[in-house]
Structure formats: C-alpha cells, structure tokens
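EI: anyone free to look at a 378-residue chain?
SC: sure, send it
EI:
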Amino acid sequence: MKVAMVDPSLFTGRYDDNLCAAMAHEGANVTLLGRPMRDTDAIAPCGYRYRPRFFARSEAVRARLGEGRGFRLLKAAEYAATCALGRLDGMIDADVVHMQWLPLAPADRLLLGRLRGKPVLVHTVHNADAYHADAGVQGRGYRAMLDMFDALVVHGDTTRAALVGQGVDPRRVLVTPHPPMRLAPAAPVDLEAIPDPALPRLLFFGTLRPYKGVDLLIDACLSLWRAGHRFELVLAGKPFMDVAPLLARVKQAGFADRLITDFGFLKEQRLDAHMAKADVMVFPYRHIDSSGAFLSALHHGKAMAVSDAGMFGQLPNGVAARARAGSAAALEQVLLPLVGDAGARQDYGRRARAYGEAMGSWKDMARTTLALYGTLLS
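SC: here you go
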C-alpha cells in the first residue's frame, strides 16, 4: 500500500515521524511530504521517505525576512500557487493521501479538488474547531472541506462528538487514541544550557497562543507569589501572541526574578531539557481536543497541572491535578499544593508516568489506521 502522509508546515513533526515509522514497520510504503527541514526539526525517517514538497522558496528566505507579516504573506502566496498549480506526483499516484494538517483552507480546497476521486483522501482532525477559532482566513471554510474526505481520524470521543454535532456522518469518523510521544532526548550540553532550579519550578512549554491560557497561568502565579509562596515559572517556546504585557505585569509586581523565559522555536532536545529540570508541567488551556505536548511529557514522571478541557477532562482521576478551564482562581487552587509539597509532586509524577506506560502504542495506531485505509480501498 502506497501512502502519502502530508503535513505541509510540519505542524506536528514528532507525531508524523512516529506514525510514519510505525506504518512503514507494518509494511506500508510511506512518504511524508512537508517543508524543508529546519535545524529545530528532529525528524529522522526510519523505514519511510521524507520529501520537502512545500514552502521551498519562502523557507529559503526565512532567515533574511524574519517571520513577520511579509514572510507570512509570501508563505500564503507560495502555498496557494502550489495547491493550484504545483506537481501532484507523490500524491496523485498514491493509494491513500492522508492530510495531517490543512494550513490554509482556501488553498487546501484547491489541492483537494485536484486529488479528489483519485487516491483515497483521509484527514486527521486534531482540533474540531480549526486552529481554535484563532486563525482568521487560515481556517475559513475548514468545516466544508471535511466533506471532501473519504474518512476522518480523531483522537477522542470529544472530537468525534463535536464533528457529529457539526453534521459529519459518524460512520466517516474513526477514533484512534493518540499514543504518548518522546522528543529527541536532551544531551549533556542541552541540560547544561538550562539553569538548575533555585525553587520548585513550573514549566509551560510549546507555542504560546491565546487559547493555551498563558495569561491565566500568569494570573495564578502572581496571586500565589503575592501570598508568599516561593517557586519559579518557566515559559519555553515560540510566542504567537503579544506576551509583553504579561511580562510587564510580572516585573511591575516585583517578581521578575521568579520568571524565566526561553522564547523561540526550540529544538526538541532543549524542550526535553526544560522538562527534565521542571517539577510541575502546566497546561492551562482554555480549549483543546488532544495535546501532543502533554503526551510528550508523561515519560518524565513529573506532576501535571491541567485544565478540564478536551482530553484533559477525560483523564482518570489522579493522573493530573485538574482545574476548571478558563479560571485563573481555579488554577491557583490546583497549583497551591504542588508548589508547596514535594511529596504531592512525586505522587502525581508517579501516576503520570504509569498512565503513559499503560496507554496504547504507535504500533496499535498504525495498525488501526492501515485497517481503515484497507476498508476504504476495498
């Protein structure tokens, strides 16, 4: 079976790599199509091929242009041209084209229109609300595009229910749990680059976006700091929002020495080093379907503080300390025992590790996905 896995912007490179390798191990002929690799990518194809099909020109000038409005407009124009007029080899001749992400809905519709009726078309709906309603034109028309696919893959019943509520035929939706992931492990040099904690350390890592509730975390931490609780907060990742007002609030309150920032597209090894040195990992999301960041952190065996949004609300009791989504006060109450009690942190950490070890594997997911392809092709 010839499979073209497509993630044009490599939004979830670690996920793509794990799934493609597992499918190849099961005997599929898999090619992952994405953009040119960056030095922050840690994909090492094992058993499958990688082809940089998208964004060649914009990636070539990214270092010179930066990532401002001009670069984003260039990317959009290049992607639209690729979808409308670009080569289809590697996709049109595949048995299955599996789209992981659709980065620009108006352009993606053109590409799907050119492919429809030839290879089987499958799409993984990572979030039922495209880009968490935070994308403007990027996600405009996303729901209508779902009807162009032969089948949809989701990672939980929450996403499935959301799609059915939007009018998607439930028979077209396959639920396959998202397995835990491991980032490229930190080397000694990566660990040395991250300062050791001086106090219990909270970590928020990954892209910083409004729906992820970083502002709620800052509010909760400020309240705890003002009440005399001593701990550090690390924000590690690329901001896609204006974080200056949040940082200014911390500074004005006199707690700048408690906040550590490591902003930018970080290598997996550096993120892994941050996780290794954290005591509590925090996921205060306002809404989410499934979280690759959470699933990549479980093996570290650290305490987790989460909201009750999406997959977090379905976690077994005791796996993570859970707060009501969207509430800084609720998050504060959840964090309070974790910052002050090393024993509580250790208990939560053991349960998080055990939960990750009991979850399904990429082999299971690959087999389920390939069985779906087989049904669609028969």
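EI: The radius of gyration is 21 Å.
SC: 👍
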